[in-house]
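# nightly structure sweep
# worker-07 picked up a monomer target from the shared queue
# config: single-sequence mode, recycle default, output format = structure tokens
# input follows
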Amino acid sequence: MWAEAARAVALARAAGVSIATAESVTGGLVCSALVDVPGASAVVKGGIVAYDSEAKHTQLGVSKRLLETDGPVCHAVATSMARGARRQMGADVAVSTTGVAGPETHGGKPPGTVIVAVVGPQGERVITVHLDGDRDEVRQAAVGLALAHLEKMLSRLPQA
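# output follows
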């Protein structure tokens, strides 16, 4: 079990907030890590895996124009994905992941590019990183990054 996931669930429970995920590059692994935590059902609403651009648009409401002009791997898309998950799931806080696990470039971005966005009552945070490793290593590191940033956002919420 991911320690960050356990802390995120505990923080969400203490603050009385719910969590949702919107995932592309991680393909549901962030939500899976969260629901591995005993008691997660009290705070995790669910997750949406939107792997291709059409799914990002239809499932999460990401603008087609944004996807066409900026590509699927950019800050605005990551933020829009998190906003969409928050709205679709009726959650207080949402985390999203988009990026390129490799081995080829995607949307003009090199393998290892990962963007994580967290949207909640305390605002929005987006981070872009370059992760080293093969496809699996990049995806696993992206899960850790997403959980760490979710935990950070949740730690700023007042306790209920």
